[in-house]
Amino acid sequence: MDRIRLVGGNELRGEIPISGAKNAALPLMIASLLSDEPLVLHNVPRLADVKQLERILENHGVDIAVHGRRRGEEEGVGQRMTFHAADIVDTTAPYDLVSKMRASFWVIGPLLARCHEARVSLPGGCAIGTRPVDLFLTGLRALGASIEIDEGYVVARAPAGGLVGATVNFPKVSVGATHTILMAATLAKGTTVIENAAQEPEITNVAECLVAMGAKISGIGTRTLTIEGVERLHGATVEVIPDRIETGTFAMAAAMTGGDVLLRGARADHLQSALTILGQTGVELITESNGIRVRRNGSPILPVHVETEPFPGFPTDLQAQFMALMTMSNGISEIRETIFENRYMHVAELVRFGADISVNGQVATITGKSQLKGAQVMATDLRASVSLVIAGLAAKGETVVNRIYHLDRGFERLEDKLSRCGAEIERLAG
Asked: Residue 126 catalytic?
């Protein structure tokens, strides 16, 4: 497997273009299953997860085209892609495809809505928690679907005439379940109300895409979504929003190493809680017309306590990166992880840099140090992987991050973006 080698100690200075959001691109791609007309997506990131979902959609019969760069288009912008599900030829999403990426399970909603049946393998993905699919299935049952589990597959069938609108009240916030029920409800007969819906910007991106395709949705961006079912959806052209997790990751990298970095294309309104917390560490954050500027020129990193929460709270997907930052604070900080029960696997790897971290249940206590030392470390999941890169950028000496295929799932051109800002970083072929 490929590895990443870093030599720490360089401040980051320059511009980093923010890619399209993986967590928006994937459900937007899946939304193409709802119509027999083309869905054109702009700013799709070049990621392993995107390629994997392409394979899954192609298995269902979706024609996919990647378009070339246009004249005058800036370097570093995402792909322009067309997804055309004129005829869904297979309503089964097999284990060998779905097991590699959890979000691929979400195809069950559009398949059930449009074809009235679906057979989808139970999902895989990062091992950061149990993340059961019971909320998905409860929501689909509320819309009238019959659900059986057969040899590791969820077999779902709509009633005669298709899904029927209903009230779905999630007992806990779930981004995946919200995406799935939202997409399924667009073609259901009657009105569906989703209570306690996720409010993430990626949900809004997908909801606005569905509206552009002809869906009738109100309450977008709130905890209550109301969907009036329509008979069919048409094609549309939609842009993938900038990746707020990539934004936060590079902001914390700049904070940890010092320097001055413009995160081009970043949207502060998608990341306000994390930016507020980052500002409390002593980092200077300036919202500019073309992005967010992050500066730390010699000032100490202040310790801050943080708790992960659903949007608009502090994102769980930035918890590992923030922990890396806190390892070099000038005091004691705490992080409480409330979303996933097994998301501290990076702790043991950060300790290899010399970090002082203790974990008690869902609370991690970090005693900051003035200097980390480079080490051989192992990536454990997507977001943990990049926390090790951040630590390596600031550590003294050489760091090698092993098993980096996780990084390729969620970060586009990571080494290139960092090296252009002064980082000494390279990929070593496996």
From this structure: yes
